[in-house]
Design brief:
This protein is of the alpha+beta class and about 350 residues long. The chain contains nine helices and 15 strands. The protein has helices at about 5-10, 10-20, 25-30, 100-120, 125-135, 240, 245-255, 260-275, 285-290; strands at about 40, 50-55, 65-70, 80-85, 140-145, 145-150, 155-160, 165-170, 190-195, 200, 205, 210, 220-225, 230-235, 305-315.
Length: about 350
């Protein structure tokens, strides 16, 4: 079993909570102000369906989180689903502006644009959708943006502006199956096979869309990748990547790969926020700060949003043409109360 204490300093009791399966209700207590959603699926007779997991944790020092996200699964005959993470720039708070308003409105408008593309029979154009949404956003503020669309044939399209990111992880061919006993000292079962690039003008100054920004959707990095059943697509704000290394993420995804996508998302977000308070842990943010000549120690406390898109063979489970739940997830507080 993965010894979580070796890489993030958990107590034995906390490790037991992490390893426990099917404890969604208890998870609501672990994650204050968690955005909690039942996993949804895009069902099709084609190669894959997509199971989603969502976890969004605000910085505990703030009244509300500044991250926003979207998850959409249009019903058949649509053949694609999409997800996105939008990280509001907290600096606007010093000017009396709520940074969450811009990111949430941009998320809503991007989702609307992509639904209009589907209704019109057009292929997903992430850059055009983001450009139109940013142009129509009347809120003051700015945010980063990371969007991914998955087709039922496994094709993955991505667009990233700023320092959020989208990763694709795939099980190694020689890795033991989840039900098998792991080989001692074996590397994580999942490898990173695709990642977006961080876009920033200077250290901790990411590309962003919005008021007074010279950046635009045209500056975003487009990606295209052939996904296969079994892949895990992660979209996350920098609260995840600033606190967990590539190896940390691969270990956790490998450990929980047999669980629902929701469990994987909750685990990644909870671990990232847990270690962000550790001033003695050498975090990825500390490493990057040092590389740019800054003295920073430990983790970086921040909003943390994680979306997990788990690609599953379409024949394994739901039948073609079945309906899914649509619309944004409910925002739930501690103990699952809205």
């Amino acid at each position: 079993d993965l010894d979580v204490t070796q890489f993030c300093g958990f107590s034995g009791g906390e490790c037991s909570m992490l390893r426990a399966s099917a404890r969604a209700r208890a998870t609501r207590y672990w994650l204050p102000a968690l955005t909690f959603a039942v996993p949804r699926r895009l069902c099709s007779a084609s190669a894959v369906r997509v199971e989603f997991g969502i976890a969004s944790l605000p910085d505990p020092s703030k009244k509300r989180g500044e991250d926003a996200h979207i998850i959409s699964c249009p019903p058949p005959p649509a053949t694609r689903a999409w997800a996105g993470v939008f990280d509001g720039v907290g600096g606007w708070a010093s000017s009396g502006v709520d940074p969450s308003k811009y990111s949430r409105e941009l998320a809503r408008l991007v989702d609307l644009e992509l639904h209009q593309q589907v209704a019109g029979g057009e292929p997903s154009d992430l850059r055009e959708a983001l450009h139109a949404a940013a142009s129509a956003n009347a809120q003051i503020g700015s945010c980063t943006a990371c969007i991914a669309a998955v087709c039922t044939d496994g094709r993955i399209s991505t667009l990233n502006v700023g320092d959020s990111g989208v990763w694709v992880l795939r099980r190694r061919e020689d890795a033991a199956e989840p039900a098998e006993s792991p080989v001692a000292d074996a590397p994580p079962a999942f490898s990173l096979v695709h990642r977006s690039q961080v876009q920033q003008h200077a250290f901790n100054t990411p590309f962003q869309l919005g008021t007074q920004s010279r950046d635009s959707a045209a500056d975003g990095e487009l990606g295209s990748f052939a996904g296969v059943a079994g892949d895990m697509v992660l979209l996350a704000s920098d609260g995840l990547f600033d606190n967990l290394s590539e190896l940390d993420i691969r270990i956790l995804v490998s450990e929980f790969s047999a669980t629902p996508a929701q469990k994987i998302a909750e685990t990644l977000a909870w671990v990232a926020q847990k270690v962000s308070f550790d001033e003695n842990r050498r975090s990825p943010f500390e490493v990057e700060a040092k590389r740019h000549g800054f003295n920073f120690k430990g983790g970086k406390v921040d909003d943390t949003t994680v979306l997990v898109l788990k690609l599953v063979a379409a024949a394994d489970g739901d039948s073609a043409g079945s309906r899914t739940r649509h619309g944004p997830p409910r925002a739930m507080g501690p103990a699952g109360q809205e």
